[in-house]
């Protein structure tokens, strides 16, 4: 091939030699959380937009999702309200969480051993899904509902299942 054909031709045909290795590439944890953040921007939730990116052991993306109403239910038909006279009139009975959508969108046979990058700490229901799907690691960004009962239950299950969860800021410092 033309790549490194001789001492003066680089991959793009420039004549720099020795070749210059780019050292300032995007670190992988930042890349995957970046994908999750981009997915979150697709959410129609007016108050909290969440994105999730599932990565396998080969560091390949195998699923991406964001919070939204179930397929075919119409983003503008069901309520996006946080509170109402009845819970039936709030979003909480209907919305699919980012983690659920990332799992359901998977393009691989299974998610065993995968890591999920999610922009908000998983709720108890999503942690059940992550555990049952075989996901082995959780990297999150925001933890704004840290003291909510659902989050307490979520951590309890992840702890028992031996699934570590790490704030991505810590991870980026540790790895990069
Ligand atoms: N990990 C999560 N993934 C998610 O997709 N969500 C979604 C459900 C709602 O659409 C929204 C939270 O709305 P709010 O209570 O902050 O207005 O984020 C919420 C959490 C946190 O439990
Ligand atoms: Zn959830």
From TrEMBL:
<dbReference type="GO" id="GO:0009165">
    <property type="term" value="P:nucleotide biosynthetic process"/>
</dbReference>
<dbReference type="InterPro" id="IPR016473">
    <property type="entry name" value="dCMP_deaminase"/>
</dbReference>
<comment type="similarity">
    <text>Belongs to the cytidine and deoxycytidylate deaminase family.</text>
</comment>
<keyword id="KW-0862">Zinc</keyword>
<feature type="binding site">
    <location>
        <position position="123"/>
    </location>
    <ligand>
        <name>Zn(2+)</name>
    </ligand>
</feature>
<feature type="active site" description="Proton donor">
    <location>
        <position position="99"/>
    </location>
</feature>
<dbReference type="InterPro" id="IPR016193">
    <property type="entry name" value="Cytidine_deaminase-like"/>
</dbReference>
<dbReference type="InterPro" id="IPR035105">
    <property type="entry name" value="Deoxycytidylate_deaminase_dom"/>
</dbReference>
<keyword id="KW-0479">Metal-binding</keyword>
<dbReference type="InterPro" id="IPR016192">
    <property type="entry name" value="APOBEC/CMP_deaminase_Zn-bd"/>
</dbReference>
<dbReference type="GO" id="GO:0006220">
    <property type="term" value="P:pyrimidine nucleotide metabolic process"/>
</dbReference>
<dbReference type="Pfam" id="PF00383">
    <property type="entry name" value="dCMP_cyt_deam_1"/>
</dbReference>
<feature type="binding site">
    <location>
        <position position="97"/>
    </location>
    <ligand>
        <name>Zn(2+)</name>
    </ligand>
</feature>
<dbReference type="InterPro" id="IPR002125">
    <property type="entry name" value="CMP_dCMP_dom"/>
</dbReference>
<protein>
    <recommendedName>
        <fullName>Deoxycytidylate deaminase</fullName>
        <ecNumber>3.5.4.12</ecNumber>
    </recommendedName>
</protein>
<dbReference type="GO" id="GO:0008270">
    <property type="term" value="F:zinc ion binding"/>
</dbReference>
<dbReference type="GO" id="GO:0004132">
    <property type="term" value="F:dCMP deaminase activity"/>
</dbReference>
<feature type="domain" description="CMP/dCMP-type deaminase">
    <location>
        <begin position="27"/>
        <end position="165"/>
    </location>
</feature>
<comment type="function">
    <text>Catalyzes the deamination of dCMP to dUMP, providing the nucleoside monophosphate substrate for the thymidylate synthase/TYMS. Also, part of a nucleotide salvage pathway that eliminates epigenetically modified 5-hydroxymethyl-dCMP (hmdCMP) in a two-step process entailing deamination to cytotoxic 5-hydroxymethyl-dUMP (hmdUMP), followed by its hydrolysis into 5-hydroxymethyluracil (hmU) and 2-deoxy-D-ribose 5-phosphate (deoxyribosephosphate). Catalyzes the first step in that pathway, the deamination of 5-hydroxymethyl-dCMP (hmdCMP).</text>
</comment>
<dbReference type="GO" id="GO:0005737">
    <property type="term" value="C:cytoplasm"/>
</dbReference>
<keyword id="KW-0545">Nucleotide biosynthesis</keyword>
<dbReference type="InterPro" id="IPR015517">
    <property type="entry name" value="dCMP_deaminase-rel"/>
</dbReference>
<keyword id="KW-0378">Hydrolase</keyword>
<feature type="binding site">
    <location>
        <position position="126"/>
    </location>
    <ligand>
        <name>Zn(2+)</name>
    </ligand>
</feature>
């Amino acid at each position: 091939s033309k790549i490194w054909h001789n001492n003066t031709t680089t991959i793009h045909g420039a004549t720099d030699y020795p070749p210059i290795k780019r050292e300032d590439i995007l670190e992988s944890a930042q890349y995957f959380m970046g994908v999750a953040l981009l997915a979150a921007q697709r959410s129609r939730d007016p108050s909290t937009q969440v994105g999730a990116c599932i990565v396998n052991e080969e560091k390949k993306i195998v699923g991406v999702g964001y919070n939204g109403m179930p397929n075919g239910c119409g983003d503008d038909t069901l309520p996006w309200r946080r509170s109402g006279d009845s819970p039936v009139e709030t979003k909480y009975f209907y919305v699919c969480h980012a983690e659920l959508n990332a799992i359901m969108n998977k393009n691989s046979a299974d998610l065993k051993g995968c890591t999920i990058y999610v922009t908000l700490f998983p709720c108890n229901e999503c942690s059940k899904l992550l555990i049952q799907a075989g996901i082995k690691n959780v990297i999150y960004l925001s933890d704004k509902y840290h003291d909510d009962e659902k989050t307490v239950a979520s951590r309890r299950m992840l702890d028992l299942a031996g699934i570590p969860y790490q704030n991505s800021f810590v991870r980026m410092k540790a790895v990069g």
